[in-house]
Write a structure and sequence with these properties.
The complex is a heterodimer of chains A (142) and B (140). Chain A has 142 residues and is an all-alpha fold. In chain A, helix 1 runs antiparallel to helix 2 and helix 4 crosses helix 6. Chain A is 72% helix and 0% strand. The longest helix of chain A is centred in the N-terminal third of the chain and has 19 residues. Chain B is an alpha/beta fold. Chain B is built from three helices and eight strands; from the N terminus they run βαβββαβαβββ. Chain B is globular. A four-stranded mixed β-sheet of chain B has the order 1-4-3-2, covered by helices on one side. In chain B, strands 5-8-7-6 form a four-stranded mixed β-sheet. Classes of the chains: A mainly alpha (142), B alpha/beta (140).
């Protein structure tokens, strides 16, 4: 294995570690240990490979998962916050709003409404030109 | 004045398989997943850092599509041949992304190679399409 391939393998292992354990209280120290690099060296390599710092990647991963959980019923905002690895609801809400433009509860309300409409009136989401030209006639009858 | 492309269509052989590839393997976000009565499915996805344009993953072979048999056959031939080049996907590090996706079982038409515009590998989606996966020169 070339040196570069080994570096990639170790950085990728650390990224996969984040993907698997994002919901736990992991820090740069834990992540860099997975790659067997010093924190500084790992931070630099990860940022070069993924175009963002390990912390930015971890936060984005957590918020992305939060988007998914917020669309599910039967789980409170606080539970979503904790289940994706945030310790504070305030920081979760702040970061969520920054990324999505909406507070978690508002995002959830919109998602529920969209999912309901998608089930009940799917044609509202499909461009009319697609319905007119591509979808067969019996699909238009709702 | 047209200012943005907000939806584009990608024809795939199988929407469930395409969902698995674009969402579970590449990490794209599902924007809309709406099914009509006869099973026609409007499934749109987008990369996590660029939520528009949405990519509508449509199966021209599905019975809910109004294409005639000849057209469907033509689509099937093209998709089965992996003949349709669908676009260019950006990556900050082509070689690392190649290694990661290869380990996940993704099939590539070509390995990362230096080109005059950057480093490029050619990725297939397993649903009839291929993409250039490019790390532009200025991205490092």
């Amino acid at each position: 294995m070339t040196q570069q391939a080994d570096i990639y393998r170790r950085v990728i292992a650390a990224k996969l570690f984040i993907d698997e354990y994002y919901h736990e209280p992991i820090h740069l120290k834990h992540i860099s240990q997975k790659a067997f690099f010093s924190r500084f060296h790992f931070h630099r390599l990860f940022t070069r490979v993924y175009g963002r710092t390990p912390l930015q990647y971890l936060t984005a991963k957590r918020l992305q998962q939060a988007n998914y959980f917020l669309q599910q019923e039967g789980i409170s905002i606080q539970e979503v916050c904790n289940s994706v690895g945030f310790e504070s609801l305030a920081s979760f809400s702040l970061l969520f709003r920054k990324r999505n433009g909406y507070a978690p509860q508002y995002y959830r309300n919109l998602a529920f409404l969209k999912n309901k409409l998608a089930k009940e009136q799917p044609q509202r989401f499909i461009p009319n030109c697609i319905i007119q030209n591509i979808v067969s006639e019996e699909s238009n009858i709702q | 004045m047209i200012t943005k492309l907000i939806h584009t269509t990608l024809f795939v052989t199988d929407q469930d398989k395409a969902y698995d590839f674009y969402v579970n393997t590449l990490g794209f976000i599902v924007k809309t997943d709406a099914k009509m009565q006869n099973g026609f499915r409007w499934l749109t996805v987008a990369p996590p850092d660029q939520l528009q344009p949405e990519i509508a993953l449509l199966s021209p072979l599905h019975e809910g599509m109004s294409y005639d048999e000849e057209t469907k056959k033509a689509f099937k031939i093209l998709l089965d041949k992996n003949a349709l080049g669908a676009g260019v996907l950006y990556t900050p590090d082509c070689r690392a992304t190649y290694e990661e996706l290869k380990a996940k079982g993704v099939v590539f038409k070509s390995e990362p190679k230096e080109q005059f515009y950057g480093i490029e590998a050619v990725i297939t989606d397993g649903c009839g399409n291929w993409f250039s996966m490019t790390q532009p020169k200025e991205s490092k």
